[in-house]
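This section describes the prediction task in plain terms. A model, or a person checking by hand, is given the sequence of a single protein chain and must write out its three-dimensional structure as a string of tokens. No templates, partner chains or ligands are provided. The sample shown here is typical of the held-out split.
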Amino acid sequence: MKIKTILLTSAILTLMLVGCGKKAVTPPQTTPPETTPNVVTTASVVNTATAFEKAISSKGTWIIAITKDLAIDSNLVVEGEYKNGKKDTAGKDIIKRKIALYSQDENRKVTARFILTAPKLTFSSPMGSIEHGTFKGDLYVSANNFQLIDATVDGNVYFTTAEAKSTFKMDATSKVTGKQEMKK
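The expected answer:
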């Protein structure tokens, strides 16, 4: 009888400890998850060269917005295919990659324009754009459907493929101070 009481008490205590104990809590993720090409991501607002270079990588974000003038001494490459979280009229995800060289207010009015300076910027992401600011250096366009939107390239624009050149667009407020030509 004494053994039954001890076993029963042990069983009840074990159930109470298991049932009433704290649940293990998974800590919040402190590093961003690895992204793969063709993913939906959020914007990356940056103010340092290191953060900018990380944001334009294939593990970066679909939109990279700088908050001040940035001068970077190395050649830059914008890589990766990203969805911007919106759908087109057919219901397909919209592919987009944007470098935003400006800040805006709550009404989306441009409130400040910034200058990004680098010797060379190669844009390899499809459906890319540089918007509302100035890039100082040579721009190499390797992807299709690249756009300048209210932006200045203070340098040359080189196209690495005929299709990149034929699908390039710039609006009436954009300008290129140098030449625009094919270069491999």
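For orientation: The chain has one domain: 36-182.
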